[in-house]
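Task: sequence design from structure.
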């Protein structure tokens, strides 16, 4: 369990007043163990992947899409989780925002928000992209889901000013909303021919598996946050 999960579990502790340190430490250990167990063996957790063609599965079979391969990986690690593909190829952040109320899966307890690549490719104003993602995070939380923000980086041929403004969006919004951040969805995949389709933009099955492998630890932290929330409300 990482430091973020330790802090989250610490919030579950009742007031022990001046209880001996040993008793307090024992209570903390029990709560942390329970959080890990509930994230793996508890009720099914439903995650939504809300994004564009990168997560929708452009150019690959349904069984090779990011949501399916992520669910496979999480279940292989003992998590009782279902991952819903709520991504639409070609979506900008504006399109994702416009369809949110009817397309965000009802009952999803967590969401991976993966949008912004098409904004960058089209050179759309970074302040507009920021505002749309800001609104999407607000709406996801209003639905009762815990977000994980999957970041994107701007193409380096759009100039320093655009690149700097765009790249700041994701870490700054993650901090503002106090949500988990995976800094770059295509980390160690973008630009690698063996991991992408012939268009050079979309990951192939090997690239998707690489993304999943790298993201699983952060998604497990998301599951831990969801389990901790459940514990507080029970």
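Answer:
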């Amino acid at each position: 369990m990482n430091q973020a999960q330790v802090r989250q579990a610490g919030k579950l502790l009742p007031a022990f007043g001046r209880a001996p340190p040993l008793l307090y430490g024992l209570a903390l250990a029990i709560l942390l163990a329970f959080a890990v167990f509930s994230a793996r063996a508890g009720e099914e957790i439903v995650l939504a992947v809300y994004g564009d063609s990168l997560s929708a599965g452009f150019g690959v079979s349904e069984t090779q899409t990011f949501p399916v391969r992520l669910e496979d990986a999480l279940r292989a690690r003992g998590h009782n989780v279902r991952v819903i593909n709520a991504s639409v190829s070609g979506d900008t952040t504006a399109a994702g925002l416009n369809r949110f109320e009817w397309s965000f899966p009802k009952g999803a307890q967590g969401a991976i928000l993966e949008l912004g690549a098409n904004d960058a490719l089209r050179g759309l104003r970074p302040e507009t992209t920021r505002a749309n993602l800001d609104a999407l995070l607000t709406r996801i939380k209003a639905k009762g889901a815990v977000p994980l923000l999957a970041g994107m980086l701007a193409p380096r041929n759009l100039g320093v000013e655009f690149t700097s403004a765009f790249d700041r969006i994701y870490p700054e919004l993650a901090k503002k909303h106090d949500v988990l951040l995976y800094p770059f969805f295509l980390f160690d995949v973008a630009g690698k021919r063996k991991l992408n389709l012939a268009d050079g933009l979309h990951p192939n099955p090997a690239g998707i598996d690489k993304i999943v492998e790298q993201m699983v630890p952060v998604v497990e932290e998301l599951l831990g946050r969801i389990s901790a929330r459940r514990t507080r409300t029970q």
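The chain is about 50% helix and 10% strand.
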